[in-house]
Amino acid sequence: MATLSDVASMAGVSISAVSRVLSGAADARVSDATRQRIHDAARELRYQPNYAARALKLSRTEVVALVVPDLTNAIVSELMHGVEDEGYERGYMVLLARAERELEQYALPRLIGEGRIDGALVQAADAMLPDELREQIDSGLPVVYVNSNHPDDGGFVDLEDELGVAVATRHLIDLGHERLAFVGGLASSVTGRRRVAGFRSEMASSGLTVDDALVTDLGYELEAGRAAVRQLLAQRTRPTGIVVANINAGFGVLLELRSQGIEVPQDVSVVALHDAWTADSTWPPLTTVKMPRYELGRAAMAALYERIHGGTVPRIVVTDPPPRLIVRESTAALER
């Protein structure tokens, strides 16, 4: 196995110069040509840093955890890719962990307690309240919450949930729909509250009345979407359009409507927040509003890096690119 000495010998420089360049040290005062020569030598010799020794020296592992409620969720992949790409550029590895309501049953507390990570990005489950999160992650470890519930003093990076739902609502209104239903997240969820606010605000700005009987707050899961449809269909007058606060619940909405013999979009149009490759695989393909989840991941990782290295507590909302409507076959103009 190649050593720093081997790399230094091949590159014709000192061991200390190799160490500073390969560790990305800010005080590595070498020319661009010398820097390239060191990297070329390390690559040719297949040099691998001793991360265990480096962690002891720096009191850092250069590893962070990304904690999400469900690793099988299709919309998690974009977030994960953004975190990984930003982490790679900053010299950090990313571990994945799953968090349910009882965080202590899973990996994060162990990673914290054993000093295996320098910080964590946490997308908390909707049912986890801020006080619970504070109790679960009370270690002094740098934590940034990702578009989810968080303690009042916790750093966060969020999306424009309210605007995203407003875009979805406006799409149905522009198609002539006035009696709209909203399938929302849990009332305890900060994203759920923002999204229903976006729906109500856009309806009000169009001079339309919201029927509270057509507003549900059962959650973002597929089964929650199905349950919401059953609740909506029990009303005396059915909606002609449904805005769904999450694509996964949107799949449940389409499935339940079909099982009830209701055709989309002939009988009711459906649009959902968030986009994933699975939206093209439903029947009909689901109209969505794509949110910048890749950019959210990059911004969250950058914020966590700054918190680890500088103690900065982020309060960031990702606005670029803005929410983007992707029209598929689940929405159509209202036939009068």
Explain what you see.
GO terms for molecular function: DNA-binding transcription factor activity; transcription cis-regulatory region binding. Pfam families: LacI, Peripla_BP_3. This is LacI family transcriptional regulator. By secondary structure, the chain is α/β, with parallel strands linked by helices. The chain folds into three domains: 4-49, 434 Repressor (Amino-terminal Domain), CATH 1.10.260; 61-159 and 293-318, Rossmann fold, CATH 3.40.50; 161-291, 3-Layer(aba) Sandwich (Rossmann fold), CATH 3.40.50.2300. The chain is built from twelve helices and twelve strands. The protein has a six-stranded parallel β-sheet, with helices on both faces. The protein has a six-stranded mixed β-sheet with strand order 7-6-8-9-10-12, sandwiched between helices. The longest helix has 18 residues, at 293-310. The radius of gyration is 24 Å and the shape is elongated. The protein starts with a helix and ends in a 10-residue tail after the last strand. The relative contact order is 0.12.
